[in-house]
Structure formats: structure tokens, C-alpha cells
Amino acid sequence: MMQSPLSVIPSAELLGAGVVRELPAEIALSAWEVLRLVILWADEGRGSTEKLFGRGGLEAALDEVMGNDPLGKGEDPRVPLAAVLAELIQPEPDEPLIARACLCMTEWALPRQYLVTGLAFSEAAAYAMPCARYAFLAAKLHRQYGRHLDADRLLKVAEKLAREEKDWETNIRVRLARGNVDLLHGRYEQAKALMVKALQTCKRYRLTGAVLGEAHHDLLVAETGLKDYPAAAEHADAAVGAYGRGHPRLPHLAHDLAGLWMEQGDYQNALSVLQSLLARHFHYDPVLRLMTYASAVRAAAGSGDTAVYTRLAGELEKALTQAAPVTVRHGPAMVDAAWGASIASDRPRLERWAGLAARYGAQMQQPEVMEDAKSVAHKPFAPRTAAARVTRNQGLARKTIAALADSAAA
């Protein structure tokens, strides 16, 4: 029997303590039992479970999950747990169905701040259905919530599987993900090198659409960090075109494009794009809403619009209360907001937001964020003016706002 590439997953017994500890009592043991059964079944070759568990044992587990109350609709976690068990009872369990049910548990758990459960089931999905895309999704989620070592391990699995499957889109996304790790640590040259290779792979295999847009998008961020602003603008324009109407990454692109313009001193176009973004998007993603309000605070301060700055600062505080649990995006967002407070000479908010950035950086193991928070708290900052760039950037600003409007309407 071929060993699973995910065989280094922490044992279900080890995960069980965290799952049982964080979940409500009425679901905790059932969730842990299902997680344990999926890992054991996958580890034994994903075949018939009758000899492994005994049909009676699985039926008893299913009865326990179902309980005496009828299953609810939509957000009842017993539904995906029951789906897994019902499939494991079958003579030939359906691997994709089990994996999707595990991801339903992830979708249920993470917004409720059950991080151990959500991440464990994302990995169980990749364990049940060992393919590059499931492993990459698990890696991405682990990175998002600051589990860097597990994310690195899962990225290696995704990379290996992508090569074996000749899944070039996932192979490209793995390279971009590695580049984004370098970006988080300020290693812009290393990040750019990985992203350029990803873009070359897109061209080699004639890949277009979303994955091409992602490569250009990430290069926008890398070139901004390297202060090659003309190259960054070219990648931004290419990314807008590649994403097209309705792509879910368009709001992220608009946010990062605004960051480029603020680095150049063009706060006016940055503010117009960010305000367009806030008017139409992010109602579904509290972390991205937090990031956008933080950047908009900085743009309003740089534009000298005190009234808009004050209003957006209040909205940012509201967004902070809704953007739980903490992710690797929280710290950089609050650094952005702290720069805005510095520009506005708003000492109370500067101290609060820089303090939050430092705390989030420590929580997510991001020493660069902690250093940035310290820098903004103690270093006076004067916004640069860039009247020529304001005019030069207006065309791309209009194009981006139009794409956002189309995306919101789609």
C-alpha cells in the first residue's frame, strides 16, 4: 500500500484535545470521532471500512451524531459529520464527497473561531482526497491563521502532488504562495524571483484568466516593495485585464493598487478606489473589510480630508470588532492605519493602532510587523505630494472602479 503524502498529519488523538476543548459539548466528541475515523480510514488505504471499523460501529457513531433532534438546515454541523459517516458505511466510500463534507466543517468552524477544528478538518479533506488542490487549500488556511510550520509542510505536499498530477495551475499557486511568505518577511527580491517563475509557467502552458491575474497581482505587490513603481503599475493593469468581470480577487487587487499609489504619494486616487471598494464589497469578508478601512484611513489622512479621516477611523474601530479571529492580515492593516494617524497627527489613535499592530504581529509570529509598528509609533511622517502622478494614475483608477462596479453587479 502506498503511503499517503500527508502521513505526517498530527494524530487524531493529539488533535482531539484541541477539538474537544474548543467545541460545544454537544458536538465536540462527535467531531473528534469523525476526524479520527477519516484519518484512520485514509491511512489504511481508503477502501472498504467494514473490516476496519465494523458496520455496527459506524452505524452507532452515525446514530450518536444524529441524536434525538432532527437535523437542522444550513449551519447545523451535524449535517457534514453525518455525511462523512454515512459515506464511510458504504462498501466503496466516495473520497471527493468525504473531502467536501470535511470542508463544510471547516466553513462552519472558522467563522465561529473554532480554529483547531476548522484547520484539522481542512487537512482531513486533503487526507481523504490526496490531490494538490485540497492540500494547497489546507496550506493556505493554515498560513492565514498563523500556523506557519504546518502551512510549509502542506505546501510541500501540494507542490509534490501538483507535479505528479501535472496540475500547473496549482503548481503556479504554490510558487506564488511561497513568494507571499517572502513578502511577509520583507524578502522582496526572493518573492519576485518566485513570482516571475510562476508568470513564466503561465506563459509556457498558455494559462489565462484567474491564475494569470494572480501572478501579475502578486508581482504588483513585490514590485511595490522594491519601489519599482512603473513595473508595479504594469502588473496591476495586466491583473485587472486577466481577472475580468466578477473575479473574487478584484477587491484585493484594488486594495493593493491603492497601496502602490500611496507609496508614490498619490492619496487622492487611492482614496477614490478604496471608497468605491467599501461601497460595494467586503460585506462577506470582515478581514478584508478591516484591511480596506485601514488603508482608507491612511489615504484620507494623506489627502488632507479631516472629516473623511475621522469618519473612516470610527468605521475602522467597528470593523475591528467584527474581524475575528486574528489572521496574518490584521497586523499589516493596523500598521497602515497607524501611518494614517501619524500623517493626521492623531497621537491617541496612533498609539492605539500601533499597539494593536505589535500585538497582532506577536500573536501571528510576524517580527517584521512588530518592527513596523515600533517604527510608525516613534518616527514622524510627512505625506509626499505627487500632483503629476495623480493625473497619470487617473486612467487606471477609473478602469479599476469600473471593474469593481461590474464585479459587484455580477
Provide structural commentary.
The chain is mainly α and 410 residues long. Helices cover 76% and strands 0% of the residues. It is built from 21 helices and no strands. It has helices at residues 12-22, 25-43, 50-53, 55-66, 78-88, 95-109, 115-128, 132-144, 148-165, 168-184, 188-204, 210-225, 229-243, 250-263, 267-280, 286-303, 306-322, 330-343, 347-363, 367-378, 387-409. The radius of gyration is 23 Å and the shape is globular. Mean pLDDT is 87; it is low at 1-8.
What labels describe this entry?
410 residues, mainly alpha, 21 helices, globular, disordered N terminus
Number of helical elements: 21
* Main pleated sheet: none
How many beta-strand runs? 0
- State mean pLDDT (0 to 100 scale): 87
Structural class: mainly alpha
Report strand %.
under 5%
Per-chain topology:
Blueprint: H1 12-22, H2 25-43, H3 50-53, H4 55-66, H5 78-88, H6 95-109, H7 115-128, H8 132-144, H9 148-165, H10 168-184, H11 188-204, H12 210-225, H13 229-243, H14 250-263, H15 267-280, H16 286-303, H17 306-322, H18 330-343, H19 347-363, H20 367-378, H21 387-409
Helix pairs in contact: 1-2, 1-7, 2-5, 2-7, 4-5, 5-6, 6-7, 7-8, 8-9, 8-10, 9-10, 10-11, 10-12, 11-12, 12-13, 12-14, 13-14, 14-15, 14-16, 14-21, 15-16, 15-21, 16-17, 16-18, 18-19, 18-20, 19-20
